[in-house]
């Protein structure tokens, strides 16, 4: 068709999930076109804490997270880059008896479901692993094979590998409308019109605008988790430390700087694509850090930032086929914990598109759940960092 660029699959959104899907589909021989309105890894996928975490995930996410972890262990083989991935272990600590009960209940629930990657450690073990932590800690839940990676480097590696397999990735292209064209799709953008047999919605905080065009209304909320990084400090921490009753994600990087996150939110204007840091909330984060690590009172903050992403009311993403349209697939709403899932989500989308099925249990992530209820399903767990 004159003036229209055609592909087998069009992916909207250049975060880690869109880039991962582009890689898997291009590797399988599909002609892939990825459209990104900013640049790849501009928002959540490039500016998060880089946590590669199986620890304390929603029970529905656990099979996907464990499968993704196997890909992370061999990430160099998948994208020709180690992505700065290091196995450090991640631990969620109990500051009080309430925290301890939450983590103890979690441990019991995971054991009853046959999962053994989360391990309870007592207060003495925590202090032996983290000598600089406050002696008030009562214990913690640890996943020893968890770690962290460089988020921007990782997403870029997926993008470059996808391009090596022939994927056409176009940045600075905003999608305006998507309409049916026979059994396929016609996508009108700021850079012209494109067509495909299959459409994949990985548009992050803007994904509801795509799904709504086909009657799939979802209660997506744009959020912007804030991050702080300190100036360099002498080495004192190897593990990634997470809070339980209080929001915290805390790790020291190899260059000595300390990265502080945990889901505290900036102000967001999605339509203008901007965020503004909330310094009162950042002060709360700083207090939590100093309570857990008293020596951090002498640390100096170097900079802070936030990226826009999508949160769902039940805390888990949308992954899978559209409930209203053939050849339309979604992967969005990862609610501040989607980075680690990036490798497996791309694989799942590729399997669904090419074979029509996947062996992983994705039923809890079906978009149709919001046509019935936006309440958290049984097994929901209140951790998003």
Structure in words:
It contains ten helices and 23 strands. With 385 residues, the chain is α+β, with helices and mostly antiparallel strands. It has two domains: 187 residues, 3-Layer(bba) Sandwich (FAD/NAD(P)-binding domain); 137 residues, D-Amino Acid Oxidase, Chain A, domain 2, CATH 3.30.9. The strands form five sheets. Strands 1, 2, 9, 10, 11, 12, 22 and 23 form an eight-stranded mixed beta sheet that branches. Strands 6-7-5-15-16-17-14-20 form an eight-stranded mixed beta sheet. A three-stranded antiparallel beta sheet has the order 3-8-4, with no helix packed on it. β18 and β19 form a beta hairpin. The radius of gyration is 21 Å and the shape is globular.
- Beta strand count: 23
Task: Give start-end ranges of low-pLDDT stretches.
Answer: 373-382
Helix and strand content put the structural class at alpha+beta
Give the number of domains.
2
Measure the end-to-end span: 46 Å
* pLDDT averaged residue by residue: 94
CATH superfamily of the largest domain: FAD/NAD(P)-binding domain
Sheet of most strands: 8 strands, mixed
- How large is the share of residues in beta strands? 25-35%
* Reported CATH architecture of the largest domain: 3-Layer(bba) Sandwich
The CATH class of the largest domain is Alpha Beta
Radius of gyration: 21 Å
């Amino acid at each position: 068709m004159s003036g229209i660029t055609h592909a087998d699959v069009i992916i909207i959104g250049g975060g880690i999930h869109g880039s991962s899907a582009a890689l898997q589909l291009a590797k399988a021989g599909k002609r892939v076109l990825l459209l990104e309105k900013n640049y790849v890894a501009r928002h959540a996928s490039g500016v998060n804490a880089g946590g590669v975490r199986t620890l304390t995930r929603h029970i529905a996410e656990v099979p996907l997270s464990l499968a993704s972890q196997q890909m992370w262990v061999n990430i160099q083989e998948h994208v020709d880059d180690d992505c700065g991935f290091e196995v450090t272990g991640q631990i969620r600590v109990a500051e009080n008896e309430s925290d301890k009960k939450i983590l103890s209940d979690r441990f019991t629930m995971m054991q009853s479901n046959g999962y053994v990657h989360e391990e309870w450690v007592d207060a003495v073990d925590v202090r032996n692993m983290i000598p600089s932590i406050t002696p008030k800690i009562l214990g913690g839940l640890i996943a020893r094979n968890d770690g962290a990676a460089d988020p921007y480097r990782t997403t870029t590696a997926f993008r470059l590998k996808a391009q090596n397999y022939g994927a056409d990735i176009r940045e600075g292209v905003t999608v305006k409308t998507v309409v049916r064209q026979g059994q396929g799709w016609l996508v009108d953008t700021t850079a012209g019109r494109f067509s495909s047999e299959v459409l994949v919605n990985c548009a992050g905080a803007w994904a509801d605008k795509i799904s709504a065009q086909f009657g799939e209304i979802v209660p997506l909320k744009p959020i912007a988790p804030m991050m702080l990084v300190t100036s360099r400090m002498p080495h004192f921490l190897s593990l990634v430390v997470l809070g339980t009753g209080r929001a915290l994600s805390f790790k020291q990087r190899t260059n000595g700087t300390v990265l502080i996150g945990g889901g505290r939110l900036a102000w967001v204007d999605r339509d203008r694509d901007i965020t503004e840091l909330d310094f009162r909330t950042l002060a709360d984060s700083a207090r939590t850090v100093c309570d857990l690590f008293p020596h951090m009172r002498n640390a100096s903050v170097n900079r802070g930032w936030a990226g826009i992403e999508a949160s769902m009311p039940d805390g888990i993403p949308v992954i899978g086929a559209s409930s209203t349209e053939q050849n339309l697939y979604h992967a969005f709403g990862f609610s501040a914990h989607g980075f680690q899932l990036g490798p497996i989500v791309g694989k799942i989308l590729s399997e669904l598109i090419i074979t029509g099925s996947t062996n992983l249990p994705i039923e809890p992530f079906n978009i149709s759940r919001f046509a019935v209820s936006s309440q958290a399903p049984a097994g929901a767990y209140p951790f998003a960092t």
